[in-house]
Amino acid sequence: MTLRILLADDHAMFRSGLKAVLGTQDDLCCVAEVADGQAAVDEAGRLAPDVAILDVRMPRLDGLHAAERILGRPGNTTKIIVLTTYDDDSYVYRALHMGASGFLLKSAPPEETIAAVRIAARGDALIDPSVTRRLISRFAGSIAPPASSTALERLTAREHEVLMLVAQAHSNTEIAQRLGIGDETVKTHVSRILAKLGLRDRTQAVMYAASHRLVAPLPAPPPSGPERLGRRRGRGGRCN
């Protein structure tokens, strides 16, 4: 199955480079590229792409307002990935509540961008580990935990472990390896955690863990990707 992608960024050179990166994959196809948020909303409505990659800062309509309009359309199936830079952290927490499926740094290596598109398309969510780390550092010490911890008490000991590892930006595969369980078991745990806590996806789980002080501010690690997926080089997917 070929994933259809909409690119929205007001920098033509960056847009062209990202399109070229996606074009190396047999299962990815860029169906449209636009330079402002309003055009992104219009094209998303016309083409219904599987994934839209939106820069935060764009003319006419910024990426967050564009995401809000796309996600708010009745019957929408397009997943949103927001592109951010190191000074964009103030946007991330707000976008969590809109239902965005991921946050990537514009400096992310090509394989991370490719991985993020596939992760979003299959209904999961991703935050770049370095963004996660800064968010935890920012919120873990500044948000007081709610008075009630009833929801947390419903989690099993294993689900607590999984939640903390999710909050530390580990992929399902990494969690499975660390806990000595299968990938499918991790997915089951994550689904149960989200249901018990009333959360939409793992991005909200990260912020929930930080706000309840389940994770401490994390030290900066060596550079690493959100999920290590090999690149399938080709001529790009065929757009339908």
UniProtKB/TrEMBL annotation:
Q: Where is the composition biased (Basic residues)?
A: 230-240
Taken from the record, one Pfam family name reads: GerE
Which GO molecular-function terms appear in the entry? Answer: DNA binding
Q: Which InterPro entries match?
A: CheY-like_superfamily, NreC/VraR/RcsB-like_REC, Sig_transdc_resp-reg_C-effctor, Sig_transdc_resp-reg_receiver, Tscrpt_reg_LuxR_C, WalR-like
Instruction: Name any Gene Ontology BP term.
Output: regulation of DNA-templated transcription
* Keyword field: DNA-binding, Phosphoprotein, Transcription, Transcription regulation
Disordered: region residues: 216-240
Highest rank taxon of the organism? Bacteria
- The keyword Transcription regulation is annotated on this UniProt entry: yes
Q: Where on the chain is 4-aspartylphosphate found, per UniProt? A: 55
Boundaries of each HTH luxR-type domain copy? 148-213
Response regulatory domain: residues covered:
4-121
Q: Does the keyword Transcription regulation apply?
A: yes
The protein depicted here goes by the name DNA-binding response regulator, NarL/FixJ family, contains REC and HTH domains
